[in-house]
């Protein structure tokens, strides 16, 4: 099956050696997107809602009109992204202890490095993890 790399229609190109998206048959595979301002290439700072909106807009910029329509329909079917207001960082950190990637009380974070390769981090200081969660919820 033929694979086709997609480059952004507008804005800053990826600054890493990967394709932002690949089309293979009827499927499209999007790389993780960040809240990068396409006009400047700078990361968007601010609250998580604005960063999420920017990342989703960056994804939409990679898609053809029909693909955008299909994805918008799927998002509409599941509803909007819920607000993060009222989520306690401590409660979220506690939920990590029940995650399938937690082994013997240690949370393992699986971080994609490239297609087909991940790095697993474990044994992270719980205070550092809690601070990262607090920062993400701001």
Walk me through what this model shows.
The protein has 138 residues and is α+β, with helices and mostly antiparallel strands. The chain has 2 domains: 3-78, 60s Ribosomal Protein L30, Chain: A; 89-137, no CATH class. 34% of the residues lie in helices and 21% in strands. It has 4 helices and 6 strands. The strands form 2 sheets. Strands 1-2-3 form a 3-stranded antiparallel sheet, with no helix packed on it. A 3-stranded antiparallel sheet has the order 4-5-6, with no helix packed on it. β2 and β3 form a beta hairpin. α3 (89-96) crosses α4 (126-137).
Write the layout of secondary structure elements.
Elements: E1 3-6, E2 21-24, E3 27-30, H1 48-60, H2 65-78, H3 89-96, E4 102-103, E5 106-114, E6 117-122, H4 126-137
Antiparallel strand pairs: 1-2, 2-3, 4-5, 5-6
Helix pairs in contact: 3-4
As for the CATH topology of the largest domain, it is: 60s Ribosomal Protein L30, Chain: A
Strand line-up in the sheet with most strands: 1-2-3
> Unreliable segments (pLDDT under 50, ≥5 consecutive)?
none
Q: Class by helix and strand content? A: alpha+beta
Q: Quick one: CATH superfamily of the largest domain? A: RutC-like
Which descriptor suits the 3D outline? globular
Average pLDDT, to the nearest integer?
Answer: 81
Keywords:
alpha+beta, 60s Ribosomal Protein L30, Chain: A, 3-stranded antiparallel beta sheet
Short summary of the structure?
The chain has 138 residues and is an alpha+beta fold. The protein contains four helices and six strands, in the order βββαααβββα.
């Amino acid at each position: 099956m033929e694979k086709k790399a997609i480059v952004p229609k507008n804005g800053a190109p990826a600054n890493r050696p990967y394709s932002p998206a690949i089309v293979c048959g009827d499927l499209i595979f999007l790389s993780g997107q960040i809240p990068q301002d396409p006009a400047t290439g700078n990361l968007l700072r601010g609250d998580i809602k604005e960063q999420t909106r920017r990342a989703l807009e960056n994804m939409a910029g990679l898609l053809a009109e029909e693909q955008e329509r299909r994805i918008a329909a799927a998002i509409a079917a599941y509803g909007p992204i819920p607000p993060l207001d009222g989520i306690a960082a401590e409660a979220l950190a506690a939920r990590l202890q029940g995650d399938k990637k937690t082994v013997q009380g240690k949370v393992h974070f699986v971080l994609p490095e490239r297609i087909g390769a991940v790095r697993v981090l474990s044994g992270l200081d719980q205070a550092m993890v809690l601070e990262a969660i607090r920062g993400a919820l701001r």
